[in-house]
Amino acid sequence: MSKQLVTLNRVVIRFAGDSGDGMQLTGDRFTSETAGMGNDLSTLPDFPAEIRAPAGTIGGVSAFQLAFADHDITTPGDDPNVLVAMNPAALKANLKDLPRGADLIINTDEFTKRNLEKVGYETNPIEDGSLDGYNVHAIALTSQTVEALKGFDITKKEAQRSKNMYALGLLSWLYSRPAEGTRRFLQKKFGHKPEILAANLAAFEAGWSFGETTEIFSVQYEVAKAADLPPGTYRNIMGNPALAYGLIAAAKRSGLPLFLGSYPITPASDILHELAKNHHFGVTTFQAEDEIAGIGGAIGASYGGALAVTTTSGPGIALKSEAIGLAVSLELPLIIVDVQRGGPSTGLPTKTEQSDLLQAMFGRNGESPVPVIAPKSPSDCFYAAIEAARVAIEYRTPVFLLSDGYLANGSEPWKIPQADDLPHIDPNFATAPNHTKADGNEEFWPYLRDPETLARPWAVPGTKGLEHRIGGLEKADGPGNISYDAQNHDTMVHLRQGKIEAIAKTIPDVEVDDPDGDARLLILGWGSTYGPIGAACQISRRAGVKVAQAHLRHLNPFPSNLGEVLRSYDKVIVPEMNLGQLSMLLRAKYLVDIQGLNQVRGMPFKSSELVTAITEAAESM
Amino acid sequence: MTTYLDLIPKSEATLSAKDFKSDQEVRWCPGCGDYSILSNVQGFLPELGLAKENIVFISGIGCSSRFPYYMNTYGMHSIHGRAPAIATGLAVSRPDLQIWVVTGDGDALSIGGNHLIHALRRNVNLKILLFNNRIYGLTKGQYSPTSEQGKITKSTPEGSLDYAFNPVSLALGAEATFVARTIDSDRKHMTEVLRAAAHHEGASLVEIYQNCNIFNDGAWEPLKDNDTRDDVMMRLEDGQPIRFGKDMEKGVIRTDEGHIAVVNVSEVGEDAIIKHDSHAKDPGLAFALSRLYNPRTLENTPIGIFRDIQRPSYDRLVRDQLAEVQANKGEGDLQALLNGPDTWVVS
After folding, report:
1. Confidence of residue B233 (pLDDT cuts 50, 70, 90)
2. Minimal Cα–Cα distance from A252 to chain B, Å?
3. CA of A277, closest CA in chain B: separation in Å?
4. Which B residues, 114 through 173, put their C-beta within 8 Å of a C-beta on chain A?
5. What percent of chain A has pLDDT over 90?
6. Quick one: pLDDT at residue A2?
7. B81 with B60: CB under 8 angstroms?
């Protein structure tokens, strides 16, 4: 039966089910198929902190949202066009985001009396008319899967578990996705279990055929390749692996061995996993006994001349604070990766937030300045990691790299760079004495600074004649011996601060995107809000609103021209997933009346919310 | 067999204790036991023949942790309790260094207890010198995790209530491969222990009974006083029966209940006395010996090497695994990594 083929520009799908239903895998596979089609895309996984929350409950719902389009997009979309709900809990938790008229694919097998009661449905929503506003496709996904797998030498439970592949096959047909990648993937994943492999393949094919033959779906959709992507070779990438690759690239381009000291924590652990997969790049991964030992090991490795990294999330940073202060005092290169999540305390381990900015800036005793860099998208984690390494090595300082849960697990197409084009970083190790004593003999002063950068020499153990001792006690300016002298301390505090401020000379000016050049309203963001802000500005401009957009990668120090930029607009709005942390820094430093737009719901901004705020702000001017 | 020392460059010149003295003024209190430890270490190191730029001292916080400033080697005075973690990162990265950790009873057993036990269990190639004076010195005299229960200090005016740690028992429980105890005042004994610790590949824990003459003077006096020393202290020597006492009249035996006990040799006969074997695979006897002493009177205190067994060090295993992966997969190709398995072309 041939069906009508409808071409769409942009589709947003949300897969939602129980934690054990394999929704993340289904989403990942659909993403991969979509990337292979040449669509632009953006993804947003949303899963609970529990590995297997009680089955069928709202708390156990795991979802994966994906937007794909024939044009350049920057967000996973606000509201889905299609919701796949594998059980009543998934329907209940996600229906509020579904606009009327959207497609709703429901697994009817799970809509039993017991499951409905579990989430407080008194009647079956499929039958009681409450879904009348939606385009409902009620399908017995589980039993159809089991039926399709009759004759396979697997248990009923195993057959039921393949229902996600049945759903994937159906959606792949519905949106004309190529199936070859998924077949390859399944072969790799289940190659050692031939029966399970055959069952999953069969479930996928059965789902596909069902779409083709059933009358439930009268149309099939297609989304053309994105036309406005720059030419090149692309892949799909998530933030955590991109960040790990950036660290490996920085190590290669600086000629230093990479050392990671880390303690597992959500949502940062995948960086540890990714680096552990790549030991053949000369990468050492040390899974320490705790967060403090993770950074301790990294400090030791840095002292020995490695490119040292520690990775964690907000609670881990709190534990590492004292050691970060030590690294500030030792003036050794160190990259501190904070994949931010909802706080305070354990907070929301699997949800995103930007609330560690002030912790990164000030969460230490004493005057303890640390550069802060934040990537703006999943693929930008790669470049931000290289930039963090550059600053750390050139300035002999710990550097914060502030990612977040959304960047870590979200994905987008990435134009793959040429490894040879990546910047070279010179470790410039000290090899000889740098000071002549009164008696004419040469000696080494570990705190004699480069006049340009104010960086101190990096002399690693094993270098003859440069033996020296460093520590957390205040050091004499130059010789580096312990000094309790009041004037010296004042000098050293200013030198350490001045060194970090001087980094501004090497970072690019902040650029403002204002196509007409006459906007009086500026939206300034940092980190992962880049996508939603960009989308909101585009939508607002199409509606005739004049709005400029700028985005900060360097949060400490700020780009040199930032004050000038802020003062040249009548109104500056700073959207953040916190209660106004960047706003506070900007207000304090530039005395500009920044207006914060703040939300802490554990999810990225919706572009529509930002459009509303932009429109209201523009109208009030 | 090659040892880790073969990986460390040797000194071209013959070094002396003087070469290991830094130009910094030593600022411990006059009469502190730390002076003799410093002097012993500086006096002993030249015999290893290592290049001094390939020796690193890493410490935490406390009186003992000022040690690196006085050594003319590479060194780091870090933060409280974290020296074993920092040293682990350095050891894993640099096989060409000999790394010493200097710590105290507060630094190693209180705030840094976690790092110490994990460095020991991993068998990181570190030489750990634990100065035990049973008191907090740098914060001016609070009780420590090795203070005897009932200790009257500024923070415990009615007496401390905590049960004390026994550092040797703790180290053995943490699977340490080298555990020894010595005393600040016995230069010869300390040098022998340091020598064995330095030649051991893996984590060496040396507990050094050290006197704080300001806040806990005489803490180890029964072990130092000529009149009492031989009565309370037993010297562990490999292959020798464990005997002590002024006339070597006391000895250690296994009891019928499976424990060990100190008895009069004349009552059981010489053959019943246990011979010390620090290389025994099973740490049971070493642990039992560590439990013999009375923490209040210091009776039956063993000194010497409790345990000294061979097991590949963590840092060596890390490097070997890295080399093996590189041999199997070849050196990493950055472009291939960036490309990944699935790409598409936009033209």
Report:
1. very high
2. 8
3. 10
4. 114-115, 118
5. 92
6. 67
7. yes
Q: Give the distance between the most distant pair of CA atoms in chain A.
A: 97
The predicted structure's pLDDT at residue A274: 98
H runs (alpha helix) in B244-344 = 265-268, 284-290, 314-329, 334-339
DSSP β-bridge partners for residue A400: A336, A372
CB-nearest partner of A303 from B82, B90, B115 = B90
- pLDDT tens figures, B301-317: 999 999 999 999 999 99
Q: Residue length, chain B?
A: 347
Which residue type sits at B310?
Answer: Q
Q: CB–CB of B77/B59 below 8 Å?
A: yes
Q: What residues of chain A lie within 8 A of the CB of B85, using their CB?
A: 288-289, 292-293, 296-297, 300
C-alpha angle A463-A466-A472 in degrees, rounded to nearest 5:
110
> Bridge partners of B260?
B254
Average pLDDT over residues A533-545: 95
- Residue A310 in tokens: 């520690």
- The pLDDT confidence band at residue A325, using thresholds 50, 70 and 90, is very high
The pair phi, psi for residue A265, each rounded to 5°, is -160, 140
Residue in B closest to A474 by C-alpha: B77
CA distance linking residue B294 with residue B232, whole number of Å? 10
Is B331–A284 a contact, with Cβ atoms under 8 angstroms apart?
A: no
CA of residue A509 relative to chain centroid, distance: 24
Does A413 have pLDDT greater than 70?
yes
Tokens read off for B301: 């205190």
Question: 3-state DSSP call for residue B327?
Answer: helix
* Model confidence at A3: pLDDT above 90: no
Q: Are the beta carbons of A617 and A571 closer than 8 angstroms?
A: yes
Best B19, B21, B42, B94 member to test A by mutation, with max A CBs in 10 Å, is B94
CA–CA gap between residue A30 and residue B110 (Å, rounded): 52
Using CA atoms of B19, B22, B25, B28 in order, give the dihedral in degrees to the nearest 10.
Answer: -90
**A433-440 long-range CB contacts below 8 Å, 24 or more apart?**
A433/A465, A433/A466, A435/A478, A435/A479
**Band of pLDDT at residue A37, cut at 50, 70 and 90:** confident
pLDDT digits (tens, 9 = 90+) for A206-250: 999 999 999 888 889 999 988 788 999 999 999 999 999 999 999
The fraction of chain A above a pLDDT of 70, given in percent, is 100
pLDDT confidence tier of residue A619, bands split at 50, 70 and 90: very high
Cβ–Cβ under 8 Å, residues A64 and A44: yes
Q: Which residues of A29-39 are buried (b: 16+ CB within 10 A; e: fewer)?
A: bbbbbbbbbbb
How many angstroms separate the CA atoms of A297 and A312, rounded? 14
Q: Are A74 and A378 in contact (CB under 8 A)?
A: no
Question: What are the tokens at A173?
Answer: 């047909």
DSSP annotation of A129: S
In the numeric block, which tokens belong to residue B52?
Answer: 């001094």
- E strands, B106-177, in order: 127-132
Contacts of B6 (CB under 8 A, 6+ apart): none
Reply yes or no on whether the pLDDT at A1 is more than 60.
Answer: no
Q: Smallest Cα–Cα separation from B197: which of B98, B327, B79?
A: B98
Distance CA A221, CA A213 (A): 15
| Cβ-based neighbours of A551, under 8 Å, separated by 6 or more | A376, A510, A524, A525, A526, A530, A533
According to the model, what pLDDT value does residue B1 have? 63
* pLDDT above 80 (res B142): yes
CA distances from A86 to A15, A133, A442, B155 (A): 8, 19, 75, 62
CA A12 – CA A571 distance, rounded (Å): 33
Residue of A297, A300, A416 lying closest to B339 (CB–CB)? A416
User: ipTM for the complex?
Assistant: 0.98
- Asked if A326 lies within 8 A of B79 by C-beta distance, the reply is yes
At A265-275, the pLDDT tens digits run 999 999 999 99
